[in-house]
Design goal:
This protein is mainly α. It has one domain. Helices cover 84% and strands 0% of the residues. The chain is built from eight helices and no strands. α4 packs antiparallel against α5 and α5 packs antiparallel against α7.
């Protein structure tokens, strides 16, 4: 039981140190756009660069989302690139994955861009959580 609790608190700490929801939404947006692509890669290679952009943009969106999760110090660059790629999928990938991928990517990029690592309300919440944990271990 305590192993699960330690694992959960470790994940919460890891998640608090990075723009988790922004990176996750950007990654999901890119994945959704890739899944809505209809043409096979063989056809896309025959069509040329315009068809290749339909696969390239969501792939780089997924990469940016993962980089936001695992390298949060560069979140501003990745989020700006993510919003540009999300908007670019409007033209290259079935209207941005039928709007769903475009909205997920744009929302995730905005969340990652606006995230600050040590906001004051976050610190207070973290201190309260630590106090509760200390009280629970003392009891």
């Amino acid at each position: 039981m305590s192993d699960v609790r330690d694992l959960r608190s470790g994940f919460r700490q890891w998640r608090a140190d990075r723009p988790f929801w922004g990176g996750l939404l950007l990654t999901l947006g890119g994945a959704e756009i890739l899944l809505t692509e209809k043409a096979s890669l063989k056809v896309v290679m025959h069509i040329g660069m315009q068809g290749m952009a339909g696969y390239l943009l969501p792939t780089v969106m997924i990469l940016c989302g993962l980089l936001i999760l695992f390298n949060p110090t560069q979140r501003l660059f990745y989020s700006l690139l993510g919003i540009l790629l999300s908007l670019g999928t409007w033209l290259t990938s079935n209207l941005g994955g039928f709007f769903i991928g475009l909205l997920l990517g744009a929302t995730g990029s905005c969340l990652a861009f606006g995230w600050l690592p040590h906001q004051e309300p976050r610190k207070r919440r973290l201190l309260r959580r630590r106090r509760r944990q200390r009280m629970a271990t003392e009891a």
